Amino acid sequence: MNIRRLRPTTALVRAAALGLTTLTACSSNVDDGRTDGKLDVVASFYPLQFLAQRIGGSAIHVSSLTKPGVEPHDLEISPRQTADLSEAGLVVYLKGLQPSVDRAIAQAEPRHVADAASYTTLEDHGTEVEGDHDHGGEGGHGDEGEEGHEGHAHSGDAAADPHIWLDPVRYAQVAKGVGKALEKADPDHATTYKKNTTALVKELTTLDQDFRSGLKDRSSDTFITTHAAFGYLAERYGLRQEAISGLDPESEPSPARIKGLHSVAKKDKVNTVFFETLVSDRTAKTLAGDLHLRTDVLDPIEGIGDKSKGDDYIQVMRSNLKALQKALGTK
Fold first, then answer.
1. b/e sequence 120-151, b meaning 16+ C-beta within 10 Å
2. 106-139 pLDDT, tens per residue?
3. DSSP strand pairing (38-43 vs 34-35)
4. Eight-state DSSP code of residue 220
5. What is the model's pTM?
6. CA separation for the pair 111, 247 (Å, rounded)
7. How far is CA 176 from CA 97, 201, 202, 279, in A?
8. Residue 170 near residue 317 (C-beta atoms within 8 A)
9. CA 28 to CA 188: how far, in whole Å?
10. Strand 38-43 with 60-64, pairing
């Protein structure tokens, strides 16, 4: 996704990165991916950084390739970051979300790699948003088990929706995978990782239950949001996501799409247009103004910043739940 905005790595940058890798590899080999005895973990962006921090605790050092306030789809990897990947004890990323990260990992060849996409199923929630309700069947499978998802797009599929962390059930599956990856990379602290993984999965299970119970008895199933980040969340809880843009948060909607959203809003009694914290709210506010609807934040939690309604993933997800309850008219 977002291939059009990602430039190929130049030969010069590759050479520089390889040079840095060569210079730094000697010192890192002594520590085997550790600093001061702690495993060095590099996460590609915030949701995976959160998992690593919660599971690794004080046994690891965690850094993120995507800095706070940066839209992860826009990330370009520097030679220094490529070198960091080669030195890390574990790299945690989501294949297909950030093509520059995928390329850098292939180049750096880290000791241990955890691909979040390999721990759950990825689905195609429709990147085309033209027309009215054609693509909107993201709801209706809220109680379906994971075994019901066979035959959908899996990791590596260019059309697959990467936003798996917005479904607490899938996110818990990824947490278990990251926990096992940490155990493999650092067996000495396996007991700690197991304990912390269990505690986090329990917290995510509670979050899932709270979404299920909190979204019952609603007056509408449909919500309008800036870009199609909430397909997994919509599917999990039987909701219907209508996105102004597709999976690309910065793509401009067509006149036909705007017209379609007008009819959706009237037909499904939508009262709110959601925007997010890391992307311009201009289109969402224009649409809301045209339809005399209110606006609110539904955060895809691709990063935590000054505008985030919470200090971490759990807090922001609970803020999202409150926003959905208000927009969908829960009793």
1. bbbbbbbbebeebeebbebbebbeeeeeebee
2. 999 999 999 999 999 999 876 443 333 333 333 3
3. antiparallel
4. -
5. 0.82
6. 32
7. 20, 8, 11, 30
8. no
9. 19
10. parallel
Do the strands 222-225 and 240-243 form a parallel or antiparallel pair, or are they unpaired? parallel
Helix, strand, coil share (%) of the chain residues, nearest 5 = 50, 10, 40
Query: Which carries the bigger pLDDT value, residue 98 or residue 137?
Result: 98
Name the nearest CA neighbour of 28 among 57, 61, 52, 53: 61
Contact between 249 and 228 under an 8 Å Cβ cutoff? The reply is no
- Amino acid at position 312, single letter: D
d(C-alpha 34, C-alpha 186), whole Å: 10
Sign of CA dihedral 214, 218, 221, 227: negative
Three-class SS of 115-168: EHHHHCCCCCCCCCCCCCCCCCCCCCCCCCCHHHHCCCCCCCCCCCCCCHHHCH
Alpha-carbon Rg for the chain, nearest whole angstrom, is 20
Choose between 117 and 228: higher pLDDT. 117
Report which of 267, 47, 79, 282 is spatially closest to residue 165, judged by C-alpha positions. Answer: 47
Q: How many CB atoms are closer than 10 A to CB 273?
A: 29
| DSSP helix/strand/coil, 191 | helix
Sheet holding 222-225, edge to edge: 240-243, 222-225, 272-275, 294-297
| Residue 21 pLDDT greater than 70, yes or no | no
- Residue bearing tokens 């909430």: 230
Give a three-class secondary structure readout of 249-301.
CCCCCCHHHHHHHHHHHHHCCCCEEEECCCCCCHHHHHHHHHHCCEEEECCCC
Region at 151 (left for phi over 0; alpha for psi -120 to 50; beta for the rest)? left
Burial of 316 (0-12, 13-18, 19+ CB in 10 A): buried
